[in-house]
Amino acid sequence: MAKLVFSDNNQCQLLHTGEHFFSSLIEAIDHAQQEILLETYIYANDATAQTVTQALCNAAKRGVCVQVIIDWIGGANHTQQLQTQFQQAGVQCRLFNPWFKRGLARTHRKLAVVDQALAFIGGINIIDDYLSDDGKNTPLPHPRWDFAVRVSGNLVLNIHKEVSAQWLKMGKLQLLQRLKLAVTLRLPPVSTSSHSSQAALVIRDNLRNRSTIQKAYLKALGSAKHTAILANPYFAPGRKIRNGLIKAAQRGVDVSLLLGVGDFHLQDAVAQSYYPKLLASGVKIYEYHRTKLHAKVAVIDHDWATVGSSNFDGLSLFVNQEANIIVVDQAFAGQLKQHLQQGLQDAVRVDPNCLVRLSWHRRFKHRVAYWFYRTIMRIATLGQYR
């Protein structure tokens, strides 16, 4: 596993929902002078996405080098139209892993870098906040609950290196060139001694970083002393993370899980199959119904926080390419914690006594869902998912 290295001298601004993210992203694109790199899973065909597209096209027309990576699945059925629009404006666009030519992995990362001076990382796709992301464009009652981080400072160069490498790997590289690129990616990240927010880019791929994100969570949970609040829309982690949550709660840490529900019934049933053991160990579980919860964030104790793209499921932890940022800064963690505490207030806490009274067929449904999901994930991850 690649060593997790923090860089100093970073300014990290938390962006809550697309309202703040897109305005900040488009402002950066409009002021770009040399280069824009954008990588995303979903690139929708709605008004918000079209605004981003127009900003990218305008930048390319004024001479900025613009490179866009879109996942082939996440681009849905309008990628050809989008690519044509990009091509006419001079925007370069590549689709990640079309027709599964390179296996099952998808790029689930949400990254952008502007002029190697400013970066964006988090869980927000290029899609309208008020529309569902399941392809049906169902209106949401409130903006999608999600986060991103606007980063300036030393970490930007590390993010730029990862997105640039992704772009190169998707092109036609000879074997020797690919080997040289792999060596470049092994070089340690930039680090300085000046003080500001400490931050680290944590990625997951199927080479050197197969379990980097999971181990970062486990290390933080293992050293937690007071509180741990974790939010995620798809909860189906392997045994290691479940045990990490349980052990933290058993030694007195106040552990709270804020989970999105209602998106996929099978996913909900799988998550609920874990509830009895987690609740019995003292983990508090909250289900969020107010709108679509898409955030993959956590705050542990008073200064450790993470925002990113990685779900707590088999696909994110063992198959897809993901990217999170870890920020060690009391002010940043405090701001994110306020949002999480509001999320807990807006959610419904799961009552352990209600689980005891569950009907036998509900319990049976949960177990069947669990065994089905585990079997599929073990096949997809070649036995890595436990």
TrEMBL record:
Keywords: Cell membrane, Lipid biosynthesis, Lipid metabolism, Membrane, Phospholipid biosynthesis, Phospholipid metabolism, Transferase. One of its GO terms (molecular function) is transferase activity. Its EC number is 2.7.8.-. The active site is at residues 108, 110, 115, 294, 296, 301. It holds the Pfam family PLDc_2. It is an enzyme of class 2 (transferase). SMART domains: PLDc (SM00155). Its main location: membrane. Gene3D superfamilies: Endonuclease Chain A. It catalyses: 2 a 1,2-diacyl-sn-glycero-3-phospho-(1'-sn-glycerol) = a cardiolipin + glycerol. It comes from the Bacteria. PROSITE patterns: PLD (PS50035). It is found in: Cell membrane. Residues 103-130, 289-316 form the PLD phosphodiesterase domain. Catalyzes the phosphatidyl group transfer from one phosphatidylglycerol molecule to another to form cardiolipin (CL) (diphosphatidylglycerol) and glycerol. Belongs to the phospholipase D family. Cardiolipin synthase subfamily. ClsB sub-subfamily. This is Cardiolipin synthase B.
